[in-house]
Design brief:
Order of helices and strands of chain A: HHHEEHHHEEEEHHHEHHEEEH
CATH topology of the largest domain in chain A: Beta-Lactamase
Distance between the termini of chain A: 39 Å
CATH architecture of the largest domain in chain A: 2-Layer Sandwich
Largest sheet of chain A: 5 strands, antiparallel
Shape of chain A: elongated
CATH superfamily of the largest domain in chain A: GAF domain
Helix content of chain A: 40-55%
Radius of gyration of chain A: 27 Å
Low-confidence stretches of chain A: none
Mean pLDDT of chain A: 90
Number of strands of chain A: 10
Number of helices of chain A: 12
Strand order of the largest sheet of chain A: 7-3-10-9-8
CATH class of the largest domain in chain A: Alpha Beta
Strand content of chain A: 15-25%
Oligomer: homodimer
DNA sequence: CCTAGCACTCTAATTTCTCGATTGCTAACT
DNA sequence: AGTTAGCAATCGAGAAATTAGAGTGCTAGG
């Protein structure tokens, strides 16, 4: 258990290091607390023994360890109000009623990336509530058809298919069949229904039913898949901890790996912080994530920055956004 | 006018510098030509006077100047066959008949970026031949409609619109009207037709015709706009000339500026090379571009790398791709 | 428990030194 | 006239030495 004084020393070191990116010495702290640098040094030694601080070399100032940051975010960080300017910038997005939720998220995280110089990820998982509204097939060339699927949340996906030997009549019949049987079905149940209810019936009517069936199957799969977007990737370049090109390459490659990013959801609804080795991204970064959920949609937003990240601000910003979109 | 020997010296310096990225000295060259280093030095001095070579400092080897590269690509470069492996990799893409052209382009440029470690841009301008095939409106919620537009080339775009006080009847009527009047119209003429033929008519039938009109107008604009894609951006990081973070940031920002990239088309159908200050990207890069044109589609592909770029190989690769897609 | 004082440590920046590559020039050679 | 050997001069890159300063740990005394 830390004493009050140890806590305030740790807090100062963390905030100061976040601000200036230079190891913090005892002198800077004894100026602010009312005691001598020797006293601070003794305390710092204890904090180092506890694994909360580190030195870069024998006679440098102290730097927070991963554990130190952890202690800071768990116990010492205090949530401040956002500045008027920040709120103002974000409000313009939330008050623009003509935007879809995914646009609102992307824009607001662009703003956050801008304000903070960190990188954001929006994982926009289409809601389970998405229900099939209508399917349509448009013939565009001799043997080429386009299957279009619309859901009641306004999601539209399409896929081109090539068929031959199937008359337009038959196709129309199939479309009508699907529309009659599965409109209103939640998207993630459509595949099963397609397989067990539609497929057997199509088989009777249409010769090349496999092609039609597969095309629609693909479209439904696309719709129920997640959508991931990385915002402000170049901000990585702004931080001195990432001045090494191979490190940058590493992180960029990971940010480009959409499949990996699709697994960032959280179990809980809090704002979760993963510092250094606690995340799978990179030992030198910190990731702050939270889920959001509205009646229509749900997903995850995450901010990625150096471990020496302005945790307070990012948590505040994410909290603000979460509250806004969850209403 | 350069002598034969001067040309072969220049050629050696360029190819050697492209290969090793180190200033080329007279010794390396006199080993290959049958003369002494002093002779080479005299020649190099003349090439320097002509502005074709440069020194990094008084007693370093020579490096090609921009003008030197230019002379090389204009007069000295010879086009070699692609290696079997390269052709094989690319063939798998071109022979996959189920891919749309834009996918073929993106995949083949991914392969090229992979082979060369350079970055590619695909500017996929939708063809003027794109004709309106069908429009459709799907109501998804009380006052929310989705407008869907399909062209005869299989392009599908959609837009959500919010209307109130317009009955579904009226909407259907409008859709039928548009379908009847402008199906078959080339996409880039649709907007005009919409304005002068449809709008006046809609105005009579439908109260809130502006909203409907605008939604469709937006969709048509989206369809006729160009699509730009950057492939292998991280390859920038692999070249020693871009080891400076602020330079990287600079180039990345430009590669992210889609609007700027949309203006990369060429006037002619050749493969065009822009070295250093000849391009608008960055004085340290070279850009190699060419247009492609098929019956259905046209656009531009470009490769971006350091000035010290393997011009031969890139030109060969672009040429190969161009020939493949133009059939 | 706190603090002043001091020797010690280590970095970062600056300077000096050396090595080797390469040049330009000159004078001699073919 | 073109080519070459020889040589002093130039410069960068890297190693080693130097210095200044910031910060530490420890000790002894308040």
């Amino acid at each position: 258990m830390l004493t009050k004084r140890q806590e305030s020393i740790l807090k100062m070191i963390v905030t100061e290091y976040i601000k200036l990116a230079k190891p913090v010495g005892s002198k800077l702290i004894c100026d602010r607390l009312n005691c001598s640098s020797a006293t601070i040094r003794n305390e710092m030694m204890q904090l180092e023994d506890l694994g909360l601080l580190e030195k870069t070399h024998t006679s440098s100032g102290r730097v927070p360890s991963e554990k130190g940051y952890r202690y800071y975010v768990d116990h010492l960080m205090e949530l401040k109000e956002l500045s008027g300017e920040e709120v103002y910038k974000l409000e313009t997005v939330f008050q623009n009623s003509s935007l879809e939720l995914s646009d609102v998220l992307n824009r607001s995280l662009e703003i956050i990336s801008d304000i903070t110089s960190y990188t954001s990820i929006v994982l926009d998982a289409k809601s389970h509530d998405n229900k099939l509204k209508e399917i349509n097939v448009v013939p565009v060339d001799k043997n080429i058809l386009i299957a279009i699927v619309v859901t009641d949340q306004g999601v539209v996906e399409h896929k081109t298919m090539e068929i031959s030997g199937v008359s337009l009549e038959e196709v129309k019949k199939t479309v009508k069949l699907i529309n009659d049987l599965i409109v209103g079905t939640p998207i993630d149940e459509v595949s099963a229904k397609l397989e067990f209810e539609i497929k057997p019936v199509i088989a009777k009517y249409v010769k090349q039913h496999e092609i039609l069936y597969n095309a629609f199957y693909d479209v439904f799969t696309d719709i129920s898949s997640k959508n991931v977007n990385v915002v402000g990737k170049n901000n990585i370049l702004k931080h001195q901890e990432f001045s090494n090109v191979s490190k940058i390459n590493d992180i960029f490659s990971k940010l480009d790996n959409k499949e990996m990013l699709k697994n960032i959801e959280e179990k809980n609804n809090d704002i979760n912080i993963y510092i250094g080795h606690e995340n799978k991204m990179d030992p030198d970064v910190a990731v702050i994530k939270t889920n959001y959920k509205t009646s229509k949609d749900e997903g995850t937003i995450a901010i990625i920055g150096p471990k020496r990240m302005d945790y307070d601000k990012v948590v505040n910003l994410l909290d603000y956004i979460k509250k806004q979109i969850e209403g």
